[in-house]
């Protein structure tokens, strides 16, 4: 089911980040429904296919303190999406939910509920979590090694699918699952929604993650937005599809990206400068370094050079949820220090350069041309856009970029259906089952 090539957009709110600016007078708080309602309705006005919430199951803390320099937690994703379902009509509602710490019967029922209440607009972004430190919230410690997380994810998703399929045969149809890492017995709790079952997204980039996506996902949310990188990533995942009995039409690619746009390229560059400074406050810059250095760096001046001391290796191991293993921290710190010194960058300037989430900075027509190149290369089906600002961070895309893309014929002129599955151009649940039979 290949339609003529088009691009789509989704909204992506990370669970913890400093990429979205919440410090404007109009931003409100991440605990207020209103902040998200405005963004979701703007996205729907721009025919976005999905509103997507990342989720962290544990608040980030650092040296015993919850840091509140950016977003430290949000109301539960599914609860929030259920509320958004009531004030939107077409946009998909995607919840990031973890297969390592949830239980399949319960999560399958909750997702099925969101799917029914939104009349077929629910999606599930399947993650396994990259840090053991989340496990402490569940009194399970490290809980599962990386490979077992993906084994459990595969069994978890298969079990959820069985519950949803059984629901199509009738509520109460018995289901018994007895895999090694997932086992339960229980009747299908709910009937299917208008789209059959929630759309499955996947975010995870390791070899196991890619294989899992090729086997099970409808959409990959990737971290590969650069054009060449996106082409290579899609090629790598697509070559895995046949061994799972699937084709290219079964899997969509949505890399995460940020757009800073204006009428002209020069204005957009100026805006990007402002955005980056607002994203990376002096405290944020220091905190960006602290997980690598494994120590409190608050005595350092963000406008001065990078710390000339080495990291405390014991403090930065994977158990604490750092992105870096201890032994790499020393190397990383040295590399960063040398590269900042070579370019004459202060801590803040270095972090502004390093942490930039944005991929697209430019005038509307420049960026429309660039997006068209992505469409022609066939490497992405859409971009999962993190708004740079609440609440106005999508206005430029909706009012400036999308009309340009529509003129070029590479963006939809309307929602093609009422369900997320239809609007993403995915095969229907039954259609795929028939193909596989
Ligand atoms: C683009 C992207 C977004 C992600 N968002 C989340 C998230 O919101 N919550 C979360 O727990 N994990 C998130 N993850 C990480 C997943 O937990 C993933 O399962 C983890 O990285 C382990 O898989 P991997 O080793 O295959 O990357 C994200 C990963 C990627 C690539």
From TrEMBL:
One of its GO terms (molecular function) is nitrilotriacetate monooxygenase activity. It comes from Microbacterium trichothecenolyticum (Aureobacterium trichothecenolyticum). It is an enzyme of class 1 (oxidoreductase). PANTHER family: ALKANESULFONATE MONOOXYGENASE-RELATED (PTHR30011), C2H2 FINGER DOMAIN TRANSCRIPTION FACTOR (EUROFUNG)-RELATED (PTHR30011:SF16). Residues 9-379 form the Luciferase-like domain. Gene3D superfamilies: Luciferase-like domain (3.20.20.30). It comes from the Bacteria. InterPro entries: Diverse_substr_monoxygenases (IPR051260), Luciferase-like_dom (IPR011251), Luciferase-like_sf (IPR036661), NTA_MOA (IPR016215). FMN binds at residues 96, 146, 150, 206. This is Nitrilotriacetate monooxygenase component A.
